[in-house]
Design goal:
The chain contains 2 helices and 2 strands. By secondary structure, the chain is α+β, with helices and mostly antiparallel strands. Strand 1, helix 1 and strand 2 form a beta-alpha-beta unit.
């Protein structure tokens, strides 16, 4: 059995990714939610495994990463 420790995870994936199908990301997201782990799922339409190959996808990826860090950054 494989055990993975995950703290405040988020799932980011391209909808046209054939290496890691979107269904696998959805399964991980659902499993985390069932375990009441705070998480987020970001689906990039039309993106493959190389999400950042298209400028608009890169912007969406970076925006989601920054939003995630903003949510958890220290208020100090």
């Amino acid at each position: 059995m494989l055990a993975i420790l995950v703290l405040q995870p988020w799932c980011l994936g391209g909808e046209d990714d054939y290496r890691t199908p979107i269904s696998e990301m959805e399964q991980l997201y659902t499993a985390l939610k069932i375990q009441q782990v705070e998480t987020a799922m970001v689906r990039i339409p039309g993106a493959s495994h190389g999400i950042a190959n298209k400028p608009s996808n890169l912007i969406a990826k970076i925006a989601s990463i920054l939003a995630w860090f903003d949510k958890y950054k220290s208020k100090d």
